[in-house]
Write a structure and sequence with these properties.
The chain has about 150 residues and is mainly alpha-helical. It has one domain (about 1-150). It is about 70% helix and about 0% strand. The chain has helices at about 1-10, 20-35, 45-70, 80-90, 95-110, 125-150. Helix 1 (about 1-10) crosses helix 3, helix 3 packs antiparallel against helix 6 (about 125-150) and helix 4 packs across helix 5 (about 95-110). The chain is globular, with a radius of gyration of 15 Å.
Length: about 150
Amino acid sequence: MLFHKLISTGLGIGYIGRGAGTAAAAVTCLFWYLFQSGSINDSFLIPCLITIAIAMVGVWSSSKVEAEWGKDNNRVVVDEVAGMCITLLFIPFSITYIIMGFILFRFFDIAKPLYIRRLENLKGGWGVMGDDVLAGIYSNLILQIVILTRLF
């Protein structure tokens, strides 16, 4: 169970209490920035594989801790980590885009418009992860539009 608690809390970030989701998203942005700045090639394969792995392990771990902590406990932040990763997939390396992605993702994750809230009704870890995955998809789509239209 320790493994699942460690994963579901984003390596312990979820234990900070209020604002843990925002903190997890911010730490994810920091790691994304550090990972991308050290990259010598423009391959999207590794970020995609990491994002998929985080999402799948997140579903599994959040399902396991739900039995002890209850449905979508506020300590579970792996969903924010996965959603933030999805937000930043296929986005050019830029601190501006990372900050915009963070703001967009937190908006969609908190406001839950456009059917995002409905995904919380899925069973187990799928409900925990589903809303943040969709928030990440919406955020990514908006960022793609911003990039294609050269707004920033």
